[in-house]
Design goal:
Belongs to the cytochrome c oxidase subunit 2 family. It is built from four helices and eleven strands; from the N terminus they run αααβββββββββββα. The chain is α+β, with helices and mostly antiparallel strands. It folds into two domains: about 80 residues, Helix Hairpins, CATH 1.10.287; about 120 residues, Immunoglobulin-like, CATH 2.60.40.420. A hairpin with a 2-residue loop joins strand 2 and strand 3. Helix 2 packs antiparallel against helix 3. It is elongated, with a radius of gyration of 25 Å. The model has no long low-confidence stretch (mean pLDDT about 90).
Length: about 230
């Protein structure tokens, strides 16, 4: 009976739109790479285990010819023991190196520790809205407009409780704290309109704490800043 639900489940999954894999910035590209990279490594492990499992099931299955057979006592195998100790360590190292490098490079930092240059935007979170203030003082609620091809420096802080800034197609989740200002960079965003949200439950209006992120050309961004 369970088998009847397997095919419909797979058909439903094929229609899933996984936003984090549809990356639209260099920052999101690196994060999507880590997801696919780790998935590929896990599939290799699953494949090896599955092949060994199937082989052993057939090789050592119960038959009338083997029912009275007693296999020899094997006390150890140095090659196998070395393989199943060193193999997982190598896989962990192969996974850990790019993960640590990318995660460290993209982690949000305190405002006082930020050294890179870019387009600064003040992001203020409060129950249940977002406010975006640009360098010239232009301010807008629930609409973030940024130029393409630049390093966007988001100066994140909260006026009340902990929130989480997230535009899945442009970058990862970043906690927004009430007692400190964090700087998160989005590298080289590409033109388009993307959904943003609060990814930290922050009260009864959490689901409506959404915003639109619009990546526009340099000229359009300059015109936007000059609008009144």
């Amino acid at each position: 009976m369970k088998k009847l639900f397997v095919l419909p489940l797979f058909l439903l999954l094929t229609g899933c739109n996984i936003a984090v894999l549809d990356s639209q910035s260099d920052t999101a590209d690196d994060q999507a790479f880590l997801i696919l990279y780790s998935l590929a490594l896990m599939l290799v492990v699953v494949l090896i285990v599955s092949i060994l499992f199937i082989r052993f099931v057939f090789k050592y299955r119960y038959t009338d010819e083997r029912k009275d057979n007693i296999p020899p006592d094997v006390k150890g195998n140095k090659w196998l023991e070395t393989a199943w100790v060193v193999g997982p360590l190598l896989l962990l190292a192969i996974l850990a190196v790019p993960t640590i490098m990318i995660t460290y490079d993209q982690s949000a930092v305190l405002s006082s520790e930020s050294e890179n240059e870019g387009v600064p935007i003040q992001v203020t979170a409060r129950q249940y809205e977002w406010t975006f203030e640009h360098a010239n003082g232009k301010t807008e609620q629930n609409r973030l407009v940024i130029p393409e091809g630049e390093t966007i420096q988001l100066h994140l802080h909260s006026e009340d409780i902990i929130h989480s800034f997230w535009v899945p197609k442009l970058g990862g989740k970043v906690d927004v704290m009430p007692d400190r200002e964090l700087v998160y960079e989005i590298q080289n965003p590409r033109i388009g309109t993307y959904d943003g949200k609060c990814a930290e439950y922050c009260g009864v209006g959490h689901t409506s704490m959404r915003f639109v992120a619009e990546v526009v050309s340099q000229e359009e961004y300059e015109n936007y800043l000059n609008e009144r």
